[in-house]
Amino acid sequence: MSDSQIDALRADFERDLSTATTVTALRGVRDRYLSRKGGLVSGLLKSLGSAPPDARPRLGKLANDLRQQIETQLDERIAAAEADRPPAGAVDLTLPGRQPALGHRHPLTLLRERIESIFSRLGFLILEGPELEDEYHNFEALNMPPDHPARDMQDTLYLAGPVRSAAGSPATLLRTHTSGMQIRYMEQHKPPVRLIAPGRVYRRDNLDLTHTPMFTQVEGLVVGEGISLADLKGTLFVFLRELFGDQRKLRFRPSFFPYTEPSAEVDISCGACGGTGKSARAPQSGLVAPKLAEASEAGLVAPKFAQGANEGGCNMCKRTGWIEVLGSGMVHPAVFEAVGYDPDRYTGWAFGMGIERTALLKWGVEDIRLFYENDLRFLEQFPL
Amino acid sequence: MRIVYNWLREIVPVPDDVDTVAREISLRGFELAAVEQGQEPVIDFEITANRPDCLSHVGIAREAAAIWGIAIAPGSGTRAQGVPSLSRDGSGTTAQSLEVTIEAPDLCPRYCAQVFQVTVAPSPSWLQQRLEAAGVRPINNIVDVTNYVMLEIGQPMHAFDLERLGQHRIVVRRARAKESMRTLDGIDRTLDPDMLVIADAERAVAVGGVMGGADSEISTATKTIALESAYFEPTSVRRSSKRLGLKTEASARFERGSDFELPPRGIARAAELFTQIGAGAPVSPLIDRYPAPREKRRIQLRSARIARLLGQVVPPEDVPRFLKPLGFEVVAKNGHGEWTVTVPSFRVDVVREEDLIEEVGRHYGFDRLPVRFPPLDAAQPPPDPIIVRDRLIRQTLTAAGFSEAMTFAFIERQAALPFCERGVEPTAIQNPLSEKFAALRPSLLPGLIDSCAHNRRRGRKDIQLFEIGSRFTSRGEGCGVAFVWLGAATLSHWSGASRTADFFDAKGTVELLCRAFGVAAIDVAPSSAPYLVGGRAAEVISDRTLLGVLGQLVPAIGEARGLVAGEEVYVGEVDLEVLARVAAGDDLRAQSLPRYPSIVRDISIVVDETLPAASVRGTIRAVAPSTLVSISEFDRYQGKGVPEGRVSLSLRLTFRDPDRTLTDDEVLGAMDRIVEALRTAHRAEQR
């Protein structure tokens, strides 16, 4: 035994200890150094006799200290490793879980139900009705006689022959708006009336980025004594701010519809440019924005939209800072006359908006056709 | 309508720049299509169908006059006098005669004409530039002046080469049977007998209010013209224009309603311009055929009614201030916020008090109206049951892994045919956009199959889609829910392989829907639907009514729409009117939980593989005591130990009595009778 042998053994041990990480490996180290038979430290102690007698007490102490040290260090490391070892039956927590399949509602349904819930809370009845209509309920009762020029604005799809509608009456066309339901409701109910009528409507429009021959509409109708344009403004402001966010500004503009007088269109301040009309920031409305880059890669959304930037002004609002969201107005007295309401006693207002268009604005979807292709990569972007 | 800014400023000196003018006018109901800056700034407004008077610079100028409170400049063809200054003769020239007869005053109540001696040449450049800025191509000085007058004051006009008019006569009449003419665009057109034409002594030379004839067109050789300025009935022009498929600047104005006082002023303004540019001079008196002059409308306007409709009291002194610049005559009545308003002849849209209130509201400013909320004066009725129903369907099917699709209600006839009832044609659309959208869908499945194929083509392998929507059968419009299922039955997971969806996944989906709606019991029977694979096609029946159909889609149908051969597609469709009828009502009575234990016995039997499970259940039910509360199949096995053509079926029977504890002996006895009955009825051997 010599000093150098003791130092070499210490160094060997330090190296072996540092590479042993599991309980098994540490026990192997213990056997290697401390085993009574063949352990390196035991061997060293046995060789004490070969040292010069005067050095024996000192070397013996050094060797025993080393043994003590090794024991202590190994005990600590083994205890720590045992504490770290997963309990029996432990699983890999990082593997993916087993999810039950869960489908998504269609984004148009999400938006429609959102709109329905807002108006429900405001005390509105939600009314469903037939998609096939007759000319009377789709046009005549709404102040659009056969030769009315306004019929040009809505090119209509006609049936080859009369078909029984869901209302049980013979129909000749696919409804161009849900107003026919409101006429039917007023024919059967006295004022006050307070309802919205959502549903699919049809126009003879070719498919393009912003048009589909079938789309979804929500119309609203309020009739009573003393209902005014101010009430229309108030209701639509509550509705649109809840739908698009409090920070949006709203604007009322005169317009023309055959069934309302006065008529108004409603604009909201553009969400893309913050109403400035200047070059747009990234879409801010949130829901789809984080997914837009992904969707753009998948070819679902045009790249320029995903970036949201546009030289020379805001693309979304055509540099005006405003986006038209719906048409509205005070119900035309001729409509009241058609359903047997006294226009001197009752006033009312109505509005109509396209859900697809609203969805385009709200979620920054650039092509309306995506709503009818039912690509699961698109549908699954929306919340459940 | 392209409004040339400088042209507008000649008529009304608006004090603001182009952008401000554009914005202010647009806020009164004229949506901006575009603003073009540059040397000749142009504001393009979209004019709504009710305002044909604003298809002219003067029309927009009136709006500007009301906005800025400034008067319209005299001249510019806006003089109110009906008698033009150059109408009576053309001194120093040979007077020309023109004879005008209106034979159809119902379609043309007023027709003005005058003969001019002209020198046809290109217009001066200022005139050409103005027309071009307004979006009209210059042709020659005569045609250009007629267009200029139309764009300026709104009166469409037409010039005939007088020498080409037989006997120098103009007859305004209906077309004769099979009469035809060649219009200015060079197309020969056959006319209908109810179309209004302008004719000479023999033949039609123009379609009234729509387009002139090629034959009497102005050419460089033309020396004398007959200038037409008329009022045509809107419905007549609209009908002719539609029938001929011919839309012109003139027809667009006439069919919306032009101004019956404007025709003579149109000629006067043209004469003025002819003189100004040296294009010609009148050589006949103005002919004005107006057999039944019309009265202007008078409407009572009440301040109280304005407040009621707008929700805001408009100061009475403001009302005339808004209305007079627009051309209305306003006379106060009794001085109490009531007026008698005379409507100018160009305002075809103003027929009742509400129309005037809109005028007041427009110029008061919709943005200045207060914001209120309509009082709730009656309880809201319960929601439409259809809405409640659709929400429950969506909840159920999304929870089962289906995503909601929306597809068009019109499809290709060919795609619809397999889904129609036998011998029934799909409902056709009279004027479809294309063959792809020619028939109303008899089922929601064709659209879903297309959506499924769309996803499959894009690499998606596992597809579950459903749709709720209208469908159209021989019974008319109805409503259904349908689903398609392709690929995995469960989401794939690292722990094991997933199973491919099969018939029983489809059947389970329909059963789940029935459970969601509390449908008491359903039966299935083989279906012969031509779009389903035989043997894997079922009708679902509840209360002896066909509730729905489900099964495997015929592969050829899917492949024709782009699905992959060899991949089984399962579909189902449920009639929602029937579902609503057989659904449990609102009168649920909760059952107490059983107080006594049940006894469960399993039995395994070997029967012929073609024996329906329902027969086994039926046999058991027939001999079992009323204490048998449920039967469920828990295993079905073929293979080692089971002879060819036979199947081992394992069933779990549960016995319970509501009033006492059953004894083992009772159940044992019942089981013996069941085994015996199965042996007798089905040659069943117990395993």
Write up what this structure looks like.
The complex is a heterodimer of chains A (384) and B (687). Chain A is of the alpha+beta class. Chain A is built from 14 helices and 10 strands. In chain A, strand 7 (250-257) and strand 8 (260-269) form a beta hairpin. Chain A is rod-shaped. Mean pLDDT of chain A is 86; it is low at 282-311. Chain B is of the alpha+beta class and 687 residues long. In chain B, strands 19-22-23-27-26-25-24 form a 7-stranded mixed sheet. Chain B has a 5-stranded mixed sheet with strand order 4-7-10-11-12. In chain B, strands 5, 6, 13, 14 and 15 form a 5-stranded antiparallel sheet that branches. In chain B, strand 25 and strand 26 (545-553) form a beta hairpin. The longest helix of chain B is centred in the last third of the chain and has 19 residues, at 664-682. Residues 78-94 of chain B have low confidence and may be disordered. Classes of the chains: A alpha+beta (384), B alpha+beta (687). At the A-B interface, helix 5, strand 1, strand 3, strand 5 and strand 6 of A face helix 6, helix 9, helix 11, helix 12 and strand 19 of B.
Task: Give me a quick take on this structure.
The complex is a heterodimer of chains A (384) and B (687). Chain A has helices at residues 3-19, 23-34, 40-46, 56-84, 107-121, 135-138, 179-188, 229-244, 289-297, 303-307, 333-339, 355-363, 370-373, 376-379; strands at 125-126, 132-133, 158-164, 170-174, 193-202, 214-224, 250-257, 260-269, 322-331, 347-354.
